[in-house]
Design brief:
It contains 9 helices and 14 strands.
């Protein structure tokens, strides 16, 4: 039986904590670490994963649900942490990150410049959000390409150029506008979410894919779904309609996989 080249794990995707693990032929990158260290280690053990294969941690931005345990894991395992200078500074200021990233483990990425990390070629790009800084990532490995965009107030043309290069995409679909409008959040929080430095709604994620996704698109995962203001079925339906409107099919041999990540239950994919 052929072993998969690529494995992708989601250990959490939402305001309770975000963390992903991308594995390729025996080496891996953790992307964000917003879970507790105990929960993260439990998931790693459950899937039989080896920390000896981890090359480092890639961080999108400095909000706690993305960086809660990054300093603790980095310090314990002597793992380098890759992100922009602004995000490193934001992590250092974040009072909810009790264990900080040590100076010797900090690696500075420049947006638009590619960093080689083992078999992974990683290019960060700017994503608008109300954090110290926020990075999307285009990751090339072997014949594969993955683009990740989370916590995005909008999709800019620059972000679109990176989406257009990836046959595998992780993109935020945070809220359904009607659920948010009629939901329990106070007005100031609703305004923050819908602002240009907030989060992507389901239809905005679909519009980005309609406009920028390549003909060779293979897989789409929807991330950071709100517990209070979204349902996986609503997110999937909105993005499915957008994909089909631009010629993608979700059935047959050329079908695009479309899957909303579960918020607090791990997901696993291989190819």
């Amino acid at each position: 039986m052929n072993q998969p080249d690529v494995k992708l794990y989601s250990f959490g995707s939402g305001s309770s904590g975000n963390s992903y693990y991308l594995w390729y032929r025996g080496q891996g990158l953790i992307i964000d670490l917003g879970l507790s260290l105990r929960a993260f280690k439990k998931h790693f053990r459950t899937y039989g994963l080896s920390f000896g294969q981890v090359l480092g941690v890639l961080v999108t931005h400095d909000h706690t649900d993305h960086v809660k345990a990054v300093g603790a894991l980095s310090t314990e395992l002597h793992l380098p942490v890759y992100t922009s200078q602004g995000v490193h500074e934001g992590i250092a200021r974040n009072r909810f990150v009790t264990k900080k990233v040590q100076a010797e483990q900090k690696r500075i990425l420049q947006q638009g410049e590619t960093q080689e990390i083992g078999p992974f070629s990683v290019t960060p790009f700017a994503v608008p959000h109300d954090s110290a800084d926020n990075n999307g990532y285009l990751i090339r490995f072997g014949e594969h390409t993955l683009c990740l965009i989370t916590d995005a107030g909008e999709v800019t043309e620059e972000m679109g150029r990176y989406l257009a290069q990836a046959e595998n995409i992780i993109i935020e679909a945070n809220y359904d506008p009607k659920m948010l409008e009629n939901g329990p959040y106070p007005w100031h929080l609703k305004h923050r979410i819908i602002s240009e430095n907030g989060h992507l709604c389901n239809s905005a994620a679909g519009d980005a894919l309609r406009q920028y996704s390549p003909n060779g698109l293979r897989r789409v995962w929807l991330c950071h779904l709100s517990e209070e203001n979204n349902h996986p079925e609503l997110a999937r339906a909105a993005v499915k309609q957008a994909l089909e409107s631009c010629g993608h099919t979700l059935e047959g041999e050329t079908a695009v996989l479309l899957h909303p990540f579960r918020r607090q239950v791990p997901d696993y994919f291989e190819w």
